[in-house]
């Protein structure tokens, strides 16, 4: 019976088997009969979490509900979910937990009426709702699961596996597993865009009302290749259960399944379960369809002997941030400074919504990437050339990508300055100002008046791009990098921007492919030869190009360039095609 903000419901607890058999179940293999899975149904009071005077928080109660809309519309495509939704959830968990890194490693679609409780994320199939009080990890099982996830591969590959959501530069698997502070955090959302959740909603238990040592016990999940552990729970009348009634598609429920950090006021294990709401179980309410995502949030751990640790805020497609990414990757592979160990740098990949948050504005008031934060004193460096010069000066001994002679150094400085002044910077923070490179992709229809531009401005900036690339082509030495025989900061600066040009100038404006080294009629043959040489000499350039190309391909499919193409057709009086 319902009473105000409370409801009496039945939840499925468990008790250890009196004969001493292991509690658990077999998954994707034949049941061998040596485990039991019997529930102890108990009536409990379910409280409305929305009615609390102070909203529950992830760190204290162990769960939290946040409004966090998703741009995903097709939940049946596992690849699309991994590519897009995982990044959204990475941003959400960072915002809610304060983590410096978030790894999203798995998801499950669930639907009422489905009998199987398990479905592989890559299958695209739904599993049933789990109506058993449980917590996904035990104190021993969580570190073991993290170790399994990184076993047999580098952490770099692990973090890059789902679209570069987040990764580490120069990671150490053993340190990651044995010395880092981390938490397993799940995120639950309805994927029904039309109806709120009424059937089989999710309930979470305030961990402060649980005696873990007395009431929790191990439940084994026996897969063909491994045995996982989670906690089952004995009933206690002291348990305080909560639910968020009628959750909508735009809401996410986050809850901890394990936190390595032990503190008196910090939740570590949140038990949860689906349950039958007696007010809707016999109604014609639509079935619950939901997605739960599993993440690992990493938190910086203060070390007396590690004073030089940094967080690098990046965006996958940003050409200005990509030069920092290139420096970090090339620095790691360089033979010049093998004797010096670089400071650990954690890369955090942001999205445009992340840039607009007050949290990020405190890091970079211009709301741009890149930004480099010193973790100990929280000092911040931003503006790409400043960040790049700082890294080169502090960790490259001003020798890694800086020429030895004054003549070559001034060539590098000039090429970087021309890029930053005339191509990649609007030179003004006021609304309505945009950089020359923005002529390739910014429009009023897509970006609004703050960042969009009219046709006359676009044509003028396009002319400026043509002027800069032809000047750069003539200025090259042909030896074979921009400033001579060795890679310099000029190469790292111009390369990502040239990826923009490779994608957009032919597709949107009809230019010839100015970076095609095999085209004998290329208007910029030296530039094309240099660009392809970079791709041939180091995989870091190949990865940089792939990241940027993937982003612009996705935006192209969404229609970002269509308003610009229409504008070109309407304003045939302006010059769009070069040469």
What is the structure about, briefly put?
The chain is an alpha+beta fold and 579 residues long. 33% of the residues lie in helices and 21% in strands.
Features:
single chain; 579 residues; alpha+beta; six-stranded mixed sheet
- The shape is elongated
Largest sheet: 6 strands, mixed
The helix count comes to 16
Helix content: 25-40%
The neighbouring-strand order within the major sheet is 1-2-5-15-12-17
How far apart the termini lie comes to 77 Å
- Count of β-strands: 22
Strand content: 15-25%
Structural class: alpha+beta
Radius of gyration based on Cα positions: 27 Å
Mean pLDDT across every amino acid position: 85
Walkthrough of the structure:
With 579 residues, the chain is α+β, with helices and mostly antiparallel strands. Helix content is 33%, strand content 21%. It has 16 helices and 22 strands. The chain has helices spanning 78-97, 141-150, 155-160, 173-178, 212-215, 319-333, 352-355, 358-361, 384-395, 406-422, 444-451, 455-475, 489-509, 525-537, 539-558, 562-570, and strands at residues 2-3, 6-13, 22-26, 35-36, 40-48, 63-67, 101-111, 126-127, 134-135, 166-169, 181-190, 202-205, 216-222, 227-233, 241-243, 251-259, 272-274, 289-299, 310-314, 345-349, 371-374, 380-382. The strands form 4 sheets. It has a 6-stranded mixed β-sheet, with no helix packed on it. Strands 6-16-11-18-7-8 form a 6-stranded mixed β-sheet. A 5-stranded mixed β-sheet has the order 4-3-13-14-9. Helix 13 (489-509) packs parallel to helix 15 (539-558) and helix 14 crosses helix 15. The protein starts with a strand and ends in a 9-residue tail after the last helix. Residues 153-171 and 336-341 have low confidence and may be disordered.
